[in-house]
Amino acid sequence: MTRTDTAVSDADLREVSLTRSEYERICNQLGRAPNRVELGMFGAMWSEHCGYKNSRPLLKLLPTDGKHVLIGAGEENAGAVDIGHGLAVVFKVESHNHPSAVEPFQGAATGIGGIVRDIFTMGARPIALLNSLRFGNLDDARNRYLFNGVVSGISHYGNCVGIPDVGGEVNFASCYAGNPLVNAMCVGIIPQEKLIRARARGTGNTLMLVGAATGRDGIHGASFASLDDPELSHRGVVQVGDPFMEKLLIEACLELGETDYLVGLQDLGAAGLTSSSVEAAHKGESGVDIDVSRVPCREEAMTPYEIMLSESQERMLAIVRQGAEEDVAAIFSRWGLHSTVIGRVTSDGMVRVRNGTEVAAEIPAHLLADAPTYVRNGTAPDYLQETHAFQPESLPELQDYNKALLALLASPNIASKECVFRQYDYSVQVNTVQGPGGDAAVLRVKGTPAGLAVTIDGNGQYCYLDPFGGGAIAVAEAARNLACVGAEPLALTNCLNFGNPEKTDVYYQLQGVIRGMAAACEALSVPVVSGNVSLYNETRGQPIYPTPMVGMLGKLESLQPSTTLAFQREGDIIALLGPQTDHCGGSEYVAQIHGVVTGRAPSIDLDMEVRVQSVCRQIIRAGLISSAHDCSQGGLAVALAESAIAGGVGFQVDIPGEGRVDSLLFGEGQSRIVVSLPEENLAAVRALAGDQGVPCTVIGSVQGDAVVLGDKVSMPLASAQRAWQNGVAEALAETG
Amino acid sequence: MKLGIVQFPGSNCDHDCLHVVRSVLQVEADLIWHEATQVAGYDALVLPGGFSYGDYLRSGSIARFSPVMRAVTDFAEAGGLVLGICNGFQILTEAGLLPGALLRNSALEFRCGWVHLRVESTASPFMASYGHGQVLRMPVAHGDGNYVADPDVLSRMRDNGQVTLRYCDAEGNVTPTANPNGSVDNIAGVCNESGNVFALMPHPERCAEPELGGVDGLGIWQAMVLALTSAPLRV
Amino acid sequence: MANGAQIGDEIGFAVTKARIYVTYKPTVLDPQGNAIQTALHHLGFADVESVRMGKYLEVELHTDDTSRAQEEVEAMCQQLLANPVIESYRFDLETAQ
Amino acid sequence: MANGAQIGDEIGFAVTKARIYVTYKPTVLDPQGNAIQTALHHLGFADVESVRMGKYLEVELHTDDTSRAQEEVEAMCQQLLANPVIESYRFDLETAQ
Ligand SMILES: Nc1ncnc2c1ncn2[C@@H]1O[C@H](COP(=O)(O)OP(=O)(O)O)[C@@H](O)[C@H]1O
Ligand SMILES: [Mg+2]
Asked: How far is the CA of B25 from the centre of ligand 2 (A)?
């Protein structure tokens, strides 16, 4: 078979985001040159977004096995874990960064729609949403526009579909200015035996497309996510979400899941019908035969190419038992949804696309599904030399610690995010025991005594300064947040947001972060069950901080006793679990007060981390403590202030440890949890901590209506409360 | 006794209400599909919260034309108890079963959180468990809860005791800062002239169990059941 | 303009296009309009005296009978498209063969 | 009509009124329009072929310089009132003394 390179131009290849050598590989494997439709299908399936070309070899480093894992990473649309009582929890996080950069409202809204479909496509009822957002600083009008748009887009879509948005995080740093991050996580629940697979099986079974009509939306969306600076190029891919249609799809698909008509179910996400049919065929070890002339279109004269690559939202592909088509259509139609038979399952392993009688594409499913992978060489970024050389001693001593604490509390990264989450319905579905605002959200599981805890965390600044350590901390912190509500971590999902992996320093970051995450997963025995990778997050050649987001699921055997971060009563003792350090590198304090992002990220002793978390869970379960809150951004001082604000009661604390006071107060040393407890429980808490070699230092008591830290900080609680409560609103009100 | 909870396309508090009636009140209940043309066999009806038809034109405006709404109207006119919650409130105003209308929240944002409510009138059977002036704490979650009505309509409502609940602070003071949505007079819940149709923006089904942070909503459900036990209203 | 070019494109089909404007009654506060006005001032459009925001609908009717279309659109507005408690409406029609 | 009668009422003030229509581009899905269309069919308006929903704004500018107003409104639309990625807009102006 001969092949001429002139058959396809460089511009053609650029349009589908394939390299010349990938094209040659396609020709060789196919034994002929692909036609245009086929080329487009390859481009989409071999994009980073669908094919994980650069990340797949690295993802293999993450541990994926565990005793609770029912469906592991990479197997299905989302991972599933056993939570007991015959139930499975399905969860995953996904990014919608690039669309949100050009149309924040619809970009974020359709991001919610996409992740929700990944959950109910497995038959699970979505019971919670979380989101993790990154923007440039709010002193810029464009960033404020993106922030407001994204939050209201999430609110619009999530509220309308009736899934409580129970948690998340928002952070601001200038590296995200042109490239905000919008990561959304969805959690669903289902009796284990009802889990639905995304598989096309059984020759002769029928493929039905249901939901929205297909338009020319988002053609090349998958490859769009693989290009830097999307703003300049692919503007046409932004779509308008239809949460009402999604809600109908949820209910209809869950109803269908109760029948035995379904063989498999697959949402249409990136690369639309191409990716969903290829994956269903490939995973089902069969083929599919699709007639695009049957696909209901919203626009005139759509070509097979366009139909196969459209990313129109709110569509699902159902693989149904032959003969059950009418019953299935009746269920959809009761919910006001239009469904159409578009093809059938075959036994020859081919993805065959027909347009009426003409065959428009014919490719073995495994060729499309097995994208080439690239293992690259990473080299340490140049900036690390400088940041590692930084001496914290060189920072000027603080004159006014009160002022510094107030500034930190008001900094948008630390300040209350209530102005965000009050726009999300977090109590619908009547399961929310602890909503947003705490370390982790807690949901009850109706019909059982058990609870679920969920959180999502990431710190790009740490990963920028130390990819390995930052990756480990992302996992450890998520687990620590679960420990603070007494929950045992079961599994995690993650979204890896990075720059262009073809750059050696970005690749180094990716490699380091994944290795660090893997180390923490091993130490904490938390496997990875799902995730998503978003690369090419750059503006004008400048990558974002390497930003892994870790979404973690934990379990509470019982909802009682329950603990929050809020101080409960005057007279309680305050103790610090874990080691006190005077490290301030990479902290919010250094960034906000001294204006530099530098130093080494906090180090983490994973072994200590495991023991601190275990002690925290134990003393919560034993009912020994009144509150628990981990030290994160802003360090010990901010953690104490947050517990005081939440409880409406002040504290008096002696600054523990030795070294520079600013570092002791605001440094972000890991593995530390601030707890408050009745004095009579102290001996028991000490004993449990001592058994596991975890330092437990009494540092003060809950009292009065002032925030007092040694002789350095003293202010009315109301002042701290005001700074923290209004921080984001004040940053937003700035005009500039 | 059996309660019917109307399920519109886009309802999303239908199952929450069903859960409270069945599991907390231990009373029989069904979902009623929006295409149903009659509601015989039900002793009271609930129009739950959510985003019927996406609330795409105005909240509740399309749902009011669902076939079931004719039956709901007949049921209400015959004196049957009808409770509207959130989107249910919006649907009942659009259908003309309650006066006024609900506009976009004045802050132009969806608002979720806990609010305090003062019981302004116990004239309606739904309020029988509460005392006049009692302060309740309930969750709200809505984008269009900004109640308006013409001044003359409002004054008639006040005279008739139709203004049932108003947003207040924890001490029961009706203040502008306690108002989450800009409602005229801080109005959170109203009933019709005869008191058998009642609706509110807050969610009594979300505060009927202690683990969810409060039980002040339970009284509305219990009052409904009590009213049905003492004077069956089956139509 | 959206859809504008399509009118009359479908040969042999008579289409009447209604453009419907729904606005709050003057007595009803328009918080969206106010918010936009503030935003415009921040952007430096100091000239802006007032902003009112409403809905705009384009409805295509399969008919060339204008007086019938007039009646129908009137009925749609009264029944569904506007809520007389808070809104008023007006519309214009354009018929193409 | 809301505000319609007010033009030119404020004697001595030059006012230009812009009526701005913002709609999704024709190729963009309009979920609201679709839902309304379905509702109209259910209500018996079988003639309805398509419904598109958009925003309608009435902006009053304190100026009688129409060409300046033209420029300003154009800028407002581009900067704030429409997102050119998915929406298109048009407007007309009316100046009164
Ligand atoms: N960072 C990651 N860690 C673990 N699993 C991942 C990661 N990224 C993707 N996966 C898994 O790979 C599979 C394909 O992911 P994706 O292409 O995002 O799915 P979808 O097509 O449903 O959006 C899923 O099972 C997903 O959970
Ligand atoms: Mg998927």
From this structure: 40
Measured in angstroms, the CA of B176 and the nearest CA of chain C are apart by 16
Range of the domain at A34: 10-50
Query: What are the pLDDT digits (tens) for A129-170?
Result: 999 999 999 999 999 999 999 999 999 999 999 999 999 999
Reply yes or no on whether the pLDDT at A230 is more than 80.
no
Any domain includes A339: no
| Residue of B34, B94, B203, B207 marked catalytic | B203
**Interatomic CA distance for residues C47 and C39, integer angstroms:** 13
Q: Please give the pLDDT value at position A238.
A: 81
Query: Mind telling me how many Å the CA of C25 is from chain D's nearest CA?
Result: 6
Domains of chain B in sequence order? 2-230 (3.40.50.880)
Instruction: Report the pLDDT averaged over residues A512-537.
Output: 97
For residue A407, what are its two tokens?
Answer: 């500034």
**A488-497 and A547-556 strand pairing:** antiparallel
Which residue out of D53, D71, D92 would a mutagenesis test of the C interface target, given it has the greatest number of C Cβ atoms within 10 Å?
Answer: D53
Q: Is the CB of A118 under 6 A from ligand 1?
A: yes
Q: What does the block give as tokens for B196? A: 């058998």
Interface of B with A in 130-169 (CB under 8 A): 139, 141, 143
- Asked if the structure places residue A621 within a domain, the reply is yes
The shortest CB-CB distance from B101 to any of C35, C81, C85 is to C85
Two tokens at A600?
């080494």
**Res. A228: pLDDT tops 90:** no
ipTM of predicted assembly, 2 dp:
0.92
Quote the pLDDT of residue D8: 43
Q: Is A73 in the pocket of ligand 1 (CB under 6 A)?
A: yes
Residues of D in contact with B10 (CB under 8 A): none
pLDDT tens per residue across span B187-230: 999 999 999 999 999 999 999 999 999 999 999 999 999 999 88
List residues bridging with B119 in a β-sheet.
B165
**3-state SS string for chain B:** CEEEEEECCCECCHHHHHHHHHHHCCCEEEEEECCCCCCCCCCEEEECCECHHHHCCCCCCCHHHCCHHHHHHHHHHCCCEEEEECHHHHHHHHCCCCCCEEECCCCCCCEEEEEEEEECCCCCHHHCCCCCCCEEEEEEEECCCEEECCHHHHHHHHHHCCEEEEEECCCCCCCHHHCCCCCHHHEEEEECCCCCEEEECCCHHHCCEHHHCECCCHHHHHHHHHHHHHCCCCC
Question: Which of C86, C87, C88, C89 is the mutation pick for testing B, counting most B CBs within 10 A?
Answer: C86
Q: How many domains does chain A have?
A: 2
pLDDT band at C12 (very low <50, low <70, confident <90, very high): low
The protein residue with its alpha carbon nearest to ligand 1, atom 3, reads A531
CB contact under 8 A, B9 and A248: yes
Give pLDDT tens digits for A352-373: 999 999 999 999 999 999 999 9
Give yes or no for residue A534 CB within 6 A of ligand 1: no
Catalytic residue (choose from B17, B86, B168, B191): B86
Indicate whether A579 belongs to any domain: yes
Residue-wise pLDDT tens digits, A73-118: 988 889 999 999 999 999 999 999 999 999 999 999 999 999 999 9
Contacts of A98 (CB under 8 A, 6+ apart): A107, A179, A224, A225, A230
Atom of ligand 1 nearest to the CA of A94: 18
Which ligand 1 atom is at minimum distance from the Cα of A121? 22
Q: What is the pTM of this model?
A: 0.94
Q: How far is B30 from chain C (nearest CA, A)?
A: 29
Ligand 1 centroid to residue A493 C-alpha, Å: 9
**Residue A503 counted as domain residue:** no
Query: Does the pLDDT at position A428 exceed 90?
Result: yes
Q: Which structural domains are found in chain C, ordered by start?
A: 15-96 (3.30.1280.10)
